[in-house]
Inverse folding.
């Protein structure tokens, strides 16, 4: 896969997972709705330490000052 495209896909997957968790939705269903292949979804959800790009958690309103 093209590096730039692969990088963007990895970031999209990470942001989708975090958004789904914040909204108390299933990250697996959110990824499936975007058409993420099952094998990739299983890898990022079951082995998070192997993700390519970890998105830092959003800062709380208190921390933004």
């Amino acid at each position: 896969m093209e590096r730039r495209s692969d990088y963007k896909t990895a970031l999209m997957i990470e942001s989708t997972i975090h958004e789904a968790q914040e909204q108390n939705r299933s990250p697996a269903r959110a990824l499936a709705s975007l058409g993420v292949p099952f094998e990739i979804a299983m890898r990022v959800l079951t082995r998070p330490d192997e993700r390519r790009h970890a998105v830092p958690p959003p800062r709380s309103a208190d921390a933004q000052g």
Q: What stands out?
A: Residues 27 and 33 are 10 Å apart (CA to CA). Residues 8-50 form one domain. The two ends are 41 Å apart (CA to CA).
